[in-house]
Amino acid sequence: MTVNTKSITERAIEKAEEHKDLSYEEMHEFFTDVLNDKVTDHELQCFIVALSNKGETVDEIAAIAEVLKSYAKDIPGVEDKVMDNCGTGGDRSGSFNISTTSAFVLASAGVTVAKHGNKSVTSKTGSSDVLQALGVNLNFDAERVAKELNQSNITFLSAPHVHPKMGQIMRVRQTLKRPTVFNFIGPCISPLDLDYQFLGIYDRTKLLTMAKVLQRLGRKNAVVLNGAGHMDEATLLGENHLVLLRNGNIEEVIIDPTDYGLTLCDLEDIAGGDGEENKDILISVLKGEATRAQSETVLLNAGIGLFIADKAKSIGAGIQTARQAIESGHAYDKLNEVIKNNEEGAQ
């Protein structure tokens, strides 16, 4: 009888390089070792590249997500059902911060939003970059975060601050300079137990896989979408591909923005820049002073989010609710409320 004396790490790398899927248990064990400093940077890099070349399964992604979430900081005392609308990044579109802008619209329309994000890795400006330009405090304090969710129904969670054991993963991810499984994992590991999720992904082939991951992670309702132009947001560039998870049922749909009275645009119409430029675009959208393409892109994304969060009976109704939130000034008021709370907290 031959005894397998290879380590967990060696077996994981070998299987991935041979294009063999790891079981949930194998992946859970391997990433527990990663977070306990038992895997070198080189070994983790080899594994992630091999996993990406092989293609990630539902079990593999869910196992990584559950291990990383189990090591995240706790946020006790949150009273309401919570939504995240974080995208994977990796689409290299150079757009403005659509999901961050949409988060303020969602919150102003009654959704409790815990926006989980990071600095830019594969794009020009990540959510953390534009939030820092706005003066939002991304340092983690569990009591402050719970208070923001309970009183203002919106908070922002910076991945490096709520995942203290992710230093090695972030270091390795930076060296790769390519989309990896961590693009898919990032939006799945909010420290909160999410009821609702809006997940935009750059890889259309992973729509159904990620919907099943979110189902396994216990989401009540969720949407996984890949926008026209293969963006990780819903866009006005053409047809958007969605997988809806609602009350345990999964449905694949394609939506055309023109069906909702929205106008198609080109990618350059929603281009962004650095944190300061994207801050200006965000403010102009919430004030109702942005270009049609910028405003309607946010309306589409917020409308889908409102539908998923049970605040609208359809995507069309969600778009109308989002429009009212902006036209009434409620969305801009929500932004000012967040900025004011951060200024008072800094004193």
Automatic annotation (TrEMBL):
Q: In this protein, which residues make up the domain named Glycosyl transferase family 3 N-terminal?
A: 12-70
Q: Which reaction does it catalyse?
A: N-(5-phospho-beta-D-ribosyl)anthranilate + diphosphate = 5-phospho-alpha-D-ribose 1-diphosphate + anthranilate
Query: Binding of anthranilate 1: at which residues?
Result: 87, 118
Instruction: Give the residue spans that cross the bilayer.
Output: none
Keyword Transcription regulation: yes or no?
no
Task: Give any GO molecular function from the UniProt entry.
Answer: glycosyltransferase activity
UniProt-listed InterPro entries = Anthranilate_Pribosyl_Tfrase, Glycosyl_Trfase_fam3, Glycosyl_Trfase_fam3_N_dom, Glycosyl_Trfase_fam3_N_dom_sf, Nuc_phospho_transferase
Pathway given in the UniProt record: Amino-acid biosynthesis; L-tryptophan biosynthesis; L-tryptophan from chorismate: step 2/5
EC class: transferase
Give the family this protein belongs to, as stated in its UniProt record: Belongs to the anthranilate phosphoribosyltransferase family.
Primary role: Catalyzes the transfer of the phosphoribosyl group of 5-phosphorylribose-1-pyrophosphate (PRPP) to anthranilate to yield N-(5'-phosphoribosyl)-anthranilate (PRA).
Name of protein? Anthranilate phosphoribosyltransferase
**Organism field:** Jeotgalicoccus aerolatus
Record lineage? Bacteria, Bacillati, Bacillota, Bacilli, Bacillales
Gene of this entry: trpD
